[in-house]
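Regression test attached.
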Amino acid sequence: MLIIGEKLSIIAKRVREAMMKKDKGPIQEIATRQWKEGAGIIDANIGPAEDGGEDLMQWMVTTIQEVVPLPICLDTTNFSAIEAGLKVHNNEWGRPLINSTSNDPERFPILELGAKYNSQVIGLTVGKGGLPADAEERCAIAAEIMGRAMEYGVPLEDLFLDPLVLQIATSQDHARHVIKAIRMFQEMNDPPMKTVVGLSNISNGCPKALRPILNKYYYLLLAEAGLTAAIADAHEMAEAEAEKALFAEVAAGRQIADAHKQAEISKTLDVMMGRTLYAHSYLEM
Amino acid sequence: MSFTPPKESYPGKVYPVTIGTGGKAVTIGGENVLSFHSFEGETPNRPVIAMEIQDVPPADWPENVRKVFEGVSDDPVKWAKYCQDELKAKAIALRLVGTHPDRENRTPADAVQTVKDVLAAVDLPLIILGSNHAEKDSAVLIAVAEAAKDRNCIIGKAQEANYKTIAAAAMANGHKLIAMSELDINLSKQLNILITQMGFDKEKVITDPMCSALGYGLEYTYSVMERIRLAALTQNDQTMQQPLLGDVGMYVWKVKETQAPESDLPQWGDAEQRGILWEAETATALLVAGAELVIMRHPRAAAVVEKVIEELV
């Protein structure tokens, strides 16, 4: 699985402050740590970046690539900031990834950038209206995005379909819909379409102690469904990989020696597969 | 070949909850099927309508429901006796709305006196509700729970912000407890878990997922209630098997459709009949969604709903 390190996001206070002050130290430290932990791409999320987005993205791309030999995931809704970032991106370390286009007409031009700069592009399966109701609706939107990618000259091998992970605390059924969508997306082309998720949104709004548990086991479920890439915490995902065998045992209905782990995995699986209703204290029940 | 109607059976069951004492005590819940599906399983108890009264005169109720209680609503004791003796109510819900800091700001001691007077005057099961001011309710409900000790009342509403004190007071004085969350099934489950983690018996809780009136989000309440009930029955979720409450009257009698006079909106027809139907429709929908207890204001609306229940059980 390709991990796109999520830690350089404007939402994090330390990162935001470093971006505002153009202080390279924290950015390079976090980027380096994610690389060491196994990230294959570094996400640079600068938010909507309406003022000075071009400068900020260029600064982020060069700052990260000064110390880390990895490509960057350019994560913003600002079209010109993405283009500015692509211009300075060092393709020697891999092709960049744009986050993202979607089925919203305002996001179509992103595909032009993908074609022009030979970049990979994430296609988020949402439209202008509401959120997709289920896996089938996600596929219908994916088909539209695929058609459009070909029109704009982005090869389907360079498109990563993102089914949009929603919070389990408020949209529990979508945990299952997303897993199913990952399976279905792959069927939509030969070779199979690539897929990606913003993983940690699954645990957004959940108690802090629960978040790594939900992130890890959801990652393993998605990996099993064939997910290509995850925007995630590389450290957490390394831990998830280490628990893969235990997880598979419990998922197959077998007992493992560690009773605490057994309960943690099986209760989390029940919640993700919709067999029990989510509540913040579900592990205590 | 004869047709055999398919029957669903479920692993879960709703807890039966008894309120009140003596001959007038009633039990709600206990079924192992969806509402009114008596052809599929056990429905030992019928839903109950509690008539709403309050500690201060209902100056904020619309004329068409206020006038029904003229001559009795100036005194909660007279009002309660009227519900018991004239309306033949099966339960009474006393809302201590006058304790709200923005209303009359009555003290916990005032509320205690009202509760004692009402309990002395009637022998129906009593639901004692605060003013829905999280902080003030803590103080008021602790005091009245003690004043009503051993009368097996329902105390409410415990919410995320104040459940600890209210649940402790209900537990110490032998009452049932309303656990209210705001139209969120996951938070409803979480609140039930938190309350039972305090040592409160899960079979003494009534769940209120928050009511809404027809035209004002009723479908949200309906959907949350239905999903709670399905979790209780199909998933045998022991944290979701409490009877459900629809606090109907309060939500219905503040919407435009129950207030606007016919002179302003002639196309809407007679205002009184419209209000009564609005309350009856809302309550009926929630009974179908799963409510076992509904709190209502207008006696004629309650009579309509009683008739619906009679026909469906």
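Expected vs. actual: identical. The mean pLDDT of chain A is 97.
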